[in-house]
């Protein structure tokens, strides 16, 4: 089970940077939206089920398995796609078989049926995932997102490894497997690209309207959470945001714009950060870092799409030469950040990736 391979979708567009002064709206080239496919968007008001892009013969078995396992249907759909591409006759060199890629010995513990039969396999899958959830629950505490991620990790790497590390094991295959499924559940199988448990950064209302990509033409290069980057100090290995980049050079590069309406609250010069707070609910605080020049200042109130500066490699805190990129953070509502109180590690940072996706500002990866 779980021979997942990391896949990436790179979003690249040509960028023409015209700096016309404070408050200028950057005019992006005409691009087809890529954050969600048309089927996903059109299914936002679908009343026939909670999943989309699922073969008809799988819809009811997935729904039942999700209920048994206590998982979102979209997560189950993404996992079965990762395991077998919805091919009931799928197999692996390790001997895994059927839609859920069970080893026959494991399948026999949960079913007397046919491992290649969709209904039998999904019924066994639901029971097995429910058992895995019980095993890993002590390590998730009261965090439902972590519980789903640990359950997926247990399916891929075994519950013993999750118990040993009390977290998603640090195996590249397992980490990629969990990421692929939680991201795929949102991007491919949920109407309107809504966040799903396991990849949900914010449980509240995200407010009205779509956002725009803060770095048009930028590609996703690094996600939120712990990482292992040679040359960075230990404290910086806990990544409090996401990174986007338009290229691989040094110095000023792409145009950084406001993803939504903002009040600029400060400039943190040491790391080239523009700090701002959403003017509308839920009043997230944001940081746009590693810029070398700024087209805005504290006190400005700017609209979505307003040019704020240029992506660069100004990163004084880490004491290392980094390739130019935009480091983007979202923090829970609170006191406005200024140059004197900004602290990425104050415990309020949340993962921007699922929020950007739901708001139509970031495609898959």
TrEMBL record:
Pfam families assigned: Peptidase_M23 (PF01551), SLT (PF01464)
Superkingdom field: Bacteria
Domain M23ase beta-sheet core residues, every copy: 238-335
Keyword field: Membrane, Plasmid, Transmembrane, Transmembrane helix
CDD domains tied to this protein: LT-like, M23_peptidase
SUPFAM superfamilies xref list: Duplicated hybrid motif (SSF51261), Lysozyme-like (SSF53955)
TM annotation in the entry: 7-26
Domain Transglycosylase SLT per the UniProt entry, residue ranges: 61-176
InterPro entries, per database record: Dup_hybrid_motif, Lysozyme-like_dom_sf, M23ase_b-sheet_dom, Transglycosylase_SLT_dom_1
Name by which UniProt lists this protein: Transglycosylase SLT domain-containing protein
